[in-house]
Amino acid sequence: MGDIAKGVLGGGWALLVGWILPTALNLAVFGLAVAPSLHHPGLADALRRASNGDKTLLFLVAAVLLGLVLNALQTPLYRFLEGYALWPAAAYERGCRVQRARRQRTADRLAATTVTLRRALLSEKLSRYPVDDEQIAPTRLGNAIRRFEEYGYDRYRLDTQVLWNELTIAAPEETRRVVDTARTNVDFFVALLYGHAAVALCAVGALAATPSDALVLLVTAGVLAALVPVWYRAAVAATDEWAAAVRALVNLGRKPLAEALGLMLPQELADERTMWQLVTRMSRRPYAPAADAAFAPYRATPGE
């Protein structure tokens, strides 16, 4: 039982809260506001004959299955919101220009104000952008995520995009759990956002079939469409905790990762940056004999 509970509170809990719960909420909205307007004879008859228990079971099964599908599709779903997938080149470049200008305006306002609370809010907004100007993404969510994706490389030359699996395996279990929990909050709003958009489209599509229910469908589509940007902004704000968790993962996981790789963490930061650059290069490129000499200063003595 202990192992089962641990699994539920780990990856299973993240799946439940991050993807299945928002899917269930969207299905509930669809069932209450859109489905009654469809007037499908066979579907209506089947629902009338079904017991409350059967309806509840059907609802739960649908929520779980759709939540699992969304979880499996999370990479393309995130990439679209980040501006990396399905974006035309012109839209991508324009988005990057807009985000650079927005970051600059925020930095100028921060430099001009002396009010403590105002400075804290502006600093929070500015911190949601990556340090390197070349890493700017065309959307707010893309930049909010990119800032912690570049953290390890900017500070230590440890490319977390390349060494993510090694880092998460070697890092302390509590640190890994914090990262998963922090990401769950962002997953929740992303799943809610896509679900609202899908239900709103279904409501608009149902207008053609049932003009008599136009008011209900229009209100449903309008409210859900208005909530989509709200959930997007909530997802951007929720990345703050995710970013803090990834920073902790990098800072606390570097030493265990070095030991797991048979390396010694150098005392000088400049030497450590060189070591992680070599590790990243070794992971991305084919082996070269010159790596023997390059890694020699950092390799731990067997048995230590």
Question: Could you please describe the fold and organization of this structure?
Answer:
The chain has one domain. The protein has helices at 2-34, 41-49, 52-72, 74-82, 89-112, 116-126, 140-149, 151-156, 164-170, 173-209, 214-260, 269-284, 290-295. It is 78% helix and 0% strand. By secondary structure, it is an all-alpha fold. The chain is globular, with a radius of gyration of 24 Å.
Structure class:
mainly alpha
How widely separated are the two ends?
A: 38 Å
Mean pLDDT equals 90
Strand coverage percent? under 5%
Q: What is the total number of structural domains?
A: 1
Radius of gyration, whole Å: 24 Å
Number of strands: 0
Number of helices: 13
Level of helix content? over 70%
Q: Give the ordered list of helices and strands.
A: HHHHHHHHHHHHH
- Principal-axes shape call: globular
Biggest beta sheet attributes? none
Query: Low-confidence parts lasting 5 or more residues at pLDDT below 50?
Result: 1-9
Topology of helices and strands:
Elements: H1 2-34, H2 41-49, H3 52-72, H4 74-82, H5 89-112, H6 116-126, H7 140-149, H8 151-156, H9 164-170, H10 173-209, H11 214-260, H12 269-284, H13 290-295
